[in-house]
Amino acid sequence: MRFHLLHPLLLLVASLRLLPSVEAATSKVAAPRTFNFENDISPLLTRYSCNASPCHGKAEGQNGFKLSVFGYDALADWRAFVTESKGRRSSSALPEQSLFLAKASGTLPHQGGARIPVGSPDYETIRAWLAAGAPFGSTNDARVVKVELEPREKILTPGAKLQLRVNATYSDGRKGDVTRFCVFQSNNDSLAKVDEHGAVVIGSLPGQTSVMARYLGEVTSFMAIVPRPGKPVGEAGFAEFNFIDRHVNAHLKKLNLRPSDVCDDATFLRRAHLDIIGTLPTADEARRFLADPAKDKRARLVNALLVRPEFADFWALKWSDLLRVDRQKLGQRDAYAYYRWIREQFAANRPLDQFARALLTAEGPLDDAPAGHFYKVVSKPGEMANAVSQVFLGVRIACAECHHHPFDRWSQTDYYGMSGLFAQVSIRKGALGETLLAEGNPTTKHPRTGENVPPHALDAAPVMDTGDRRRALAEWFTAPENPWFARNLANRLVAHFFGRGIVEPVDDVRATNPAGNPALLDAVAKSLVDARFDLQQFIRTLTASRTYQLSATPNDTNAQDEQNFSRALFKRLPAEVLLDAVCDVTGVPEKFDGVPAGTRAVQLWDSQAQHYFLKLFGRPVRVTACECERNAEASIAQVLHLLNSPNLQSKLSHADGQIARLVAAHAD
């Protein structure tokens, strides 16, 4: 009974001793979590494919509910949840009954099925956001500025497993692991598969491939390198003729591949003729070259080919495809003037940066500035931005016209900023003809926000000059420090001479389609810049490499390799080159309508000229700037044509043809 009441003094002391503990406990109570829709909710919509194009991310949405593709427009997505459908998608009072959670969890019927399990961490994040009032967040909140994969590259063995980790860097300098919120995709499932958690499983084949990770509009990639199993290749067989071979060989050693031997002189002769001037060597040229004992005869052959008129014919044909010399768009007279200007640039070996600059900044009467016909073929600012980016940068930005590029970092702001550089361009018709102008200060509006987008090149600052914006674009394009222009041109030329690009396709350069050999791409781009964009000098460099001169015959290590330049690749001849080769071999020239007799197929400037052989073997009609428009695929129709074509049969049996002359010469 003596302890049933505490002494008042003891009670006071006890209460005083308890106060710090109460204060400590109070100080440890977590502050209410603040939410940012873009950082906290958008990644979940992407992770569970809610904003993918087959679901609510499609152009028209799904069942009355539309989200931006991959969350490129977070504000519009937030409004779709909070203000549309009378607020039924986001209830703060009863978050579990919000359509957002109820349908995503399968509590209510959902055409897409149950996506987010009830009680899962992601479910609880969304529930807490709804309970907090479904805020969008502050404009001062940190934003993701970069994502990086760990590792960036790794040499792995067949069957190996690897967990990727994605780190995001925010505008306030903070970094965090966002792996569980990313979307992953492999460029080649047979070499490396990746699951939704970033776990990679290597296949049974040797080679290399990249795995993409996407988070909040930012993309990055990981390169998996799987060496050929077996005995290491050692150091033998890795001779170097120039720097190209050094970078190729270093990469081949990673893959445990040994390059093939150097090709013989006859192969080099044929290869160089077809690659440089698009024409077969004659029998006399072959005899002279093969009989020449000089050690430098291959280099001298290349020099001789570069100054032949066929060089300008062949390269004008290639660039007429890219720059779309199109009679249907331009008419006969203007299309020919446009083609003739292109050919003159290659005949004079005009540096490629000056060539691009002249095309981009063409102005004045079109009779005096035929390069300006480019702006008649692509007449809208958006079309101009698409074509110029694809041809001169190797970048496809067309997707960003409507939404953030799903596999790259380009946004609608980038697209309309690039378009704005061409908004001044117009063609005025007058009594003396057409004049290309670039004047005024027109604005380009963002289709979603309605705000003016400052004109700017990709990854570049806004153009503040009130003059011709295209001049600023041309300066940026051709600046030596611009990583896009030189790398694109160098990669296109490597693809032409080596059979494939370091980046493939050559006009689809993006973070999720990385270079197979980044060091090689950097080196050839630097070489082109150092050569001051001299095409002929760069061709000398490429053809002088051992890599270019390799045989197509595989060795015991590289029979399956078609990516890493360990051997020469077989290439289908362009339609025009193939037809000219048929004419050269048979000794019977082709007759084309509307052009002088003796015109070769490579010299045909009009892609609309009707010719069955050229159409069948993939000549493009030049409606896009894509390399893919020239079709190099084989077909049954091509085989049947070669076997049964009356035109080819007449060449073989022609009384004045090569076969008839050979028979007559050896009649005895």
Task: Summarize this entry quickly.
This protein is an alpha+beta fold and 668 residues long. 39% of the residues lie in helices and 10% in strands.
Describe this structure in words.
It is a single chain. The protein is an alpha+beta fold. Among the domains are: 37-131, no CATH class; 144-226, Immunoglobulins (Immunoglobulin-like), CATH 2.60.40; 349-478, no CATH class; 575-665, no CATH class. 39% of the residues lie in helices and 10% in strands. It contains 25 helices and 13 strands. The chain has a four-stranded mixed beta sheet. Strands 1-4-5 form a three-stranded antiparallel beta sheet, with no helix packed on it. It has a three-stranded antiparallel beta sheet with strand order 3-8-7, with no helix packed on it. Helix 6 packs antiparallel against helix 19 (518-530), helix 7 (265-277) packs parallel to helix 9 and helix 15 (381-393) packs across helix 16. The longest helix is centred in the N-terminal third of the chain and has 20 residues, at 8-27. The protein is globular. The protein starts with 7 loop residues before the first helix and ends with a helix. The model is unreliable at 1-30 (pLDDT under 50).
